[in-house]
Amino acid sequence: MVLALPRGGVPVAAEVASALDAPLDVILVRKIGVPAQPELAMGAVVDGGSPLIVRNEGVIMLAGISDTEFSAACDDELAEIERRRRLYLGHRERVDIADRVTLVIDDGVATGATTRAALRATRLRNPKKLVLAVPVAPTETLAVMREEADDVVCLEDHEPFGAIGLYYSDFRQISDREVVDMMSRFPLRGSHIVPVAPN
Predict the structure, then answer these.
(1) How would you classify residue 48: left for phi > 0, otherwise alpha for psi between -120 and 50, otherwise beta?
(2) Is 78 in contact with 51 (CB distance < 8 Å)?
(3) How far apart are CA 196 and CA 124, in angstroms?
(4) Which residues are within 8 A (CB) of 144 and not within 5 positions of it... i.e. 6 or more apart?
(5) β-sheet bridge partners, residue 37
(6) Contacts of 137 (CB under 8 A, 6+ apart)
(7) CA separation, residue 64 to residues 60, 70, 76, 113 (Å)
(8) Of 17, 40, 71, 194, which has the most beta carbons under 10 Å away?
(9) How far, in Å, are 42, 50, 123, 133, 144 from residue 136 at the CA level?
(10) What angle do helix axes 67-89 and 176-184 make, rounded to 10 degrees?
């Protein structure tokens, strides 16, 4: 089973799912950015019947973020997750990953906050084996990811790292429309689906 982190992880995951002839689904994760510096992750949230929230306590403390500020930022990201869930999946049912080898795929890992949240949420769905597969990541972050996944596959790791986009010749933003089109190439088959619980 292949789970992609939208949007950038979907083109990577689509290639893997196609090569493996495996079902493709998305796992909706949003970084919770520091209000004054949105690219700096103070946590992440993952979609589900009960959303999983991962806090980056070190960043929260250093940025002086109150519980109220964190909750407000979290609510904003949950609203965006709901919008994307409806857009990308519509009424499509969720892939059943229980007792199956499951690959979580993104276009790369930087700080690891969203990846860690995705892996933890996927673990709660009882996969037989949980594998993180990414093209590129910081060496130090990969060590942390190995504590969350049963196996980690990464084509290139670097230290110092910089940004994910530095390792791509084409790192343009993937549109919602492109995600929807890619997902439509992978219809789910009967034994791989479970009803999506209403949020």
Answers:
(1) left
(2) yes
(3) 15
(4) 112, 116
(5) 34
(6) 108, 109, 110, 112, 145, 154, 156, 157, 161
(7) 6, 10, 19, 18
(8) 17
(9) 22, 30, 22, 9, 14
(10) 50
- H or E element in which residue 47 lies: none
Q: Which amino acid is at 39?
A: E
Q: How many other C-beta atoms can be found within 10 angstroms of the C-beta atom of residue 178?
A: 14
Phi, psi dihedrals of residue 148, rounded to the nearest 5°: -100, -30
CB 149 within 8 A of CB 182: no
Contact 133, 16 (CB under 8 A): yes
Q: What is the rounded distance in angstroms from the CA atom of residue 23 to the CA atom of residue 153? A: 19
What angle is formed at CA 1 by the lines to CA 177 and CA 124, rounded to 5 degrees? 100
Strands 29-34 and 37-46, bridge-based pairing? antiparallel
pTM: 0.83
Output the tens digit of pLDDT for each of the chain's 199 residues. Answer: 999 999 999 999 999 999 999 999 999 998 898 998 887 889 889 986 678 898 889 999 999 999 999 999 999 999 999 888 889 988 777 778 999 999 999 999 988 878 988 999 999 999 999 999 999 999 999 999 999 999 999 999 999 998 899 999 999 999 999 999 999 898 776 545 444 444 4
Residue 140 tokens read as 């130090």
| Backbone angles phi and psi of 93, in degrees to 5 | -80, 160
- For residue 98, what is the DSSP state? B
